[in-house]
Amino acid sequence: MSLFLAVDGGATITRAGLYAADGTLLREAAGAPCNPVEYGVDACVSVLLSLSRILAENTVAARISDHNTGGFAAGISGAKQEALRDEIARAVCRKMPVARAAVTDDLHPILYANAGACDALLVIAGTGSSVLAQAADGRSVIVGGRGRLFGDEGSAYQIAVTGLRAASYAVDGMGRDTRLAAALPFAAGVETFAGLVSWSASASKQQVAALASTVDALAAEGDAVARECVVEQAQRLAEQTSAALGRLAMPRTAACYLNGGVFSQSGLFLDAFRGALARRWPEAKPEFPRLLGHRAVLALAMTQAQLPEWVSVHAYDSADGEAAAESGEDAASTRSRDVPVAFTDRAVCLDRLTAIRIVEEMNREDKRVAEVVARGAPEIARAIEAVVQAFGRGGRLIYVGAGTSGRLGVLDAAECTPTFGVPRDKVIAVIAGGSRAIVESVEGAEDDVEQAVKDIDSIAPGVCARDVVVGIAASGRTPYTLAALHRARAKGAGSVLLCCNPMQESVADVTIALETGAEVLPGSTRLKAGTATKMVLNMISTGALALSGYVYEGRMAGVRPTNSKLRGRAIGIVRDLTGLSSSDAERMLQAAGGSIPVAMIMARKGTDAASAASLLEKAGGRLREALEKD
User: Residue 505: CB partners within 8 Å, gap ≥ 6?
Assistant: First the structure.
């Protein structure tokens, strides 16, 4: 089995992913930064080797000694010079059993993976900053990104430096008072502001950049000086972005991608950047790229085509062995560090951990899920809007899935009626293997494409253009789900694919691809993938029903009081939204037959239950519309 190692060498941390030939992420590892300019080529290569060994731990490996299989690619911060890239690529081929090593900087792979050869820009705001612009004709330019001496405008490092200088001016009586003067020493771990001077003499770029979060926090709390520090750097980065666009005379319809911790962690910075950029480039539509980190680099490791000129490629041959000998490394010592390129897919040996370690390991992975879902927000919103339109046409939301994915669809559909009061045929779910599959595994059901077609055709009334079908498949490749989705599209229905793997081609009108990464128990999609899927289904159904009139003033106006708990909740909703006492709200609800919307209309308009129900029906069940009508 051929495996591929992809490395994202950022300015603060290096992350590596081990992938199967089908693009499945098997295992991840993280290590020290590997910038060859900051730390040297030897240190850079040492980090790469260390990560490769970590990925090989606790696995059953078939070591490859003939260098005929496997691929390696790395996008490394600071590796802009061809000579540096060449040296790293040669060293990798000497020390790892890979057929080919591809090395480039940390910017190009993101554009390569997300935009292909189209006109596009990538704006980085992390520990450092820079702007990469590429034209469709192959030209490219990098603006900024020259390190701390030249400023790194818009970076965490420069935000911190600006904050330190502003605090210094305040301490010396040369500038306005700011809480930065007290907060920054504390964040750096020194007792006084004067102590920052000696601290700065030995502080790394990463340690200085870490202070940016303190500047941003004070800005959010209203410190005017801190706010100016953040906004100023956002504006300067916007200037660089505009300059990059102009240098290549690119069309103003070019795509613009944003990446880096400053963008993702500082709402103030993001808003200020977008505002400043809009003044210079009104057509710009900045967005976060779908493929990031080592997942973006993977395309360079796996492609068989000729790689772009900004990639240094070195293929293994016998000269590498000779080079190792000349440098004092014999073949045996080199082989002893060989990286396994065929592994079992075990990411963590859970059976070797204590109970508390298992909890910690799983919790660490689960923390990433919300961030992954957040990156899919635009596509999730599009799905919600599609379902709202379907409901407006009298259509339905139909979930389709197999296994865990199917069960999650069944769960979400089942909760819609008691939560929102929608008819049971408004949100429905189809699961491979039928109702038996809800409680037990039905072997082969997920591969039965013929049954998928039959299941879609058996839905009554028939699936049509009024409906939206959401296919749920963690892998994005489940035959049953894709066949069902294809059949629904053939009948004119809107389509959404929800998966937890990047998709190269869209098979639906809307594709929500969440890259949740390797599971602590590989192959078990009920873990991170399941959690992410449940979150998105919550958003789709709740968002669509809220926008379709089943939520009023933030309350579950359609909830059906079928038990004592729900009766109490319904009484409270009527009481809070009408100003009635609890006893009067209860009587009104009883007169309305338990319908909160009918009770609300009765109370607001002074009508009887029949008249209120008629008004609600004329408004299509939308309480707000019924209440606002004269």
Answer: none
Q: Name the nearest CA neighbour of 263 among 285, 235, 234.
A: 234
In this structure, is the dihedral angle defined by the CA atoms of residues 551, 552, 555 and 558, taken in order, positive or negative? negative
Phi, psi of 188 (to 5 degrees): -85, -10
Dihedral angle of Cα 228, 231, 233, 239, to the nearest 10 degrees: -130
Catalytic residues: 415, 446
| Segment 91-105, tens digit of pLDDT | 888 887 677 899 999
The residues, ordered by sequence, that sit 6+ positions from 348 with a Cβ below 8 Å of its Cβ are 58, 361, 520, 521
Q: Global pTM? A: 0.51
Locate tokens 């080592």: which residue?
A: 294
d(CA 92, CA 324): 11
The two three-digit tokens of residue 611, written as one number: 């008249």
155 is written with which tokens? Answer: 């970076």
Q: What's the token pair of residue 622? A: 């939308």
Q: What is the pLDDT of residues 413-446, one digit of tens each?
A: 999 988 888 889 999 999 999 999 998 888 788 8
Tell me the fold of 370-550: Rossmann fold (3.40.50)
Does CATH number 3.30.420.40 belong to domain 120-280?
yes
Q: CATH assignment of 4-106+292-335, given 3.30.1560, 3.30.450, 3.30.70, 3.30.420?
A: 3.30.420
- Rounded distance, CA 452 to CA 464, Å? 16
* Cα→Cα distances 519→29, 60, 345, 365, Å: 13, 18, 10, 8
Rounded to an integer, what distance in angstroms lies between the CA atom of residue 522 and that of residue 77? 30
For residue 71, the cross-strand partners are 4
